[in-house]
């Protein structure tokens, strides 16, 4: 198959790049070795839209974080993705930490972060009465926000696919060859050709870059573990609450999620394998202890799950956004604040596609960048629900009782562009299985609905692709 642009990777960077490219009359293909978008780093990060005060002034991270933060609200509005600009606080518990807060403030001013200021203990406790009473001051960044990373990723890819982009799933890239007119890419056993290739392969971006002779950097996986609490804990804090950073990490934080839960984490530990998303007793105890330093009222009996994600930490210490080979573009080493910077990273990548001179960038006259609104039954009024159920009774059949997700919402998630193909795919699009029971009640019905919609047997449905089958066979 011949394309203008192949984007390798359907995490937030690849999806946002495809979204930005969809405004042009281009043949675009997004390829990924996983079955669903946002299946790796973009599925398990903090969901924080950082203000941009802690990145080194002049770096790609600093520049693109602040710009991406400024874009995020409008992007989420167009994509019908929940976004809340709740602000963040960095707590100082000693005079030494207060000096670090002042340094972060100065860095933020250089980076152009709006509204940034250092507040005293009195103002801090007015904003966050549940933080520990021994804090001496805090850095307040009102421009910080929260978003759902996997919903943002999926929404961006939906718009791209609705505009004509193709999405090639479970298609690992095994070879890239330079040709006279572009590149030949072998993915999932298929041979694809393109004038331009964008490397947004996350943890494996160094591996992809080496296929075209670019060995300037390596990617190291750095694991962060989290604990998620039920929604009754969601108002424990109203801001993203950080501690003063140490060791190159932003540290363990306490934050509400955009969906109303509360979580603590992450820690930061280098691991050997790029697929090691296990949680450990030691790691979870570490984040419990660290989080308690910030906030006293953390009832561990109300924790509903724990999970881990991997950051793609580059050897360069900064985002790698360049074109080492004509027509081949890296968007690599996109660790934190990669989610915050994603809209701006995509803009920069599209600029490099244009600068390559290999494709004609003709704008689509009908492109609005908006996604067809998602029907979220749990957010509707009783009157809106009654009207919807009258229109389609399947909206009245609750499948996930914890999160109030209906049968038709699940069917919609499967039928939409780049729709769900697995239980985790449904979960990330609808929140079915994200409540207290973690899918204990709704899981079997989700499997049945997937099988009906995809025209296959329930035994063929997987949790996340590959051999992760939900069922081993029939008993009767």
From TrEMBL:
Its lineage opens with: Bacteria, Bacillati, Bacillota, Clostridia, Eubacteriales
A Pfam family matched by this chain, by name? DAO
- Species annotation: Butyricicoccus pullicaecorum 1.2
| Record domain BFD-like [2Fe-2S]-binding: where | 398-452
Superkingdom of this protein's organism = Bacteria
Limits of the FAD dependent oxidoreductase domain: 4-350
Q: Which InterPro entries match?
A: BFD-like_2Fe2S-bd_dom, BFD-like_2Fe2S-bd_dom_sf, FAD-dep_OxRdtase, FAD/NAD-bd_sf, G3P_Oxidase/Oxidoreductase
Q: Which Gene3D superfamilies match?
A: BFD-like [2Fe-2S]-binding domain, D-Amino Acid Oxidase, subunit A, domain 2, FAD/NAD(P)-binding domain
Protein name per the record: FAD dependent oxidoreductase
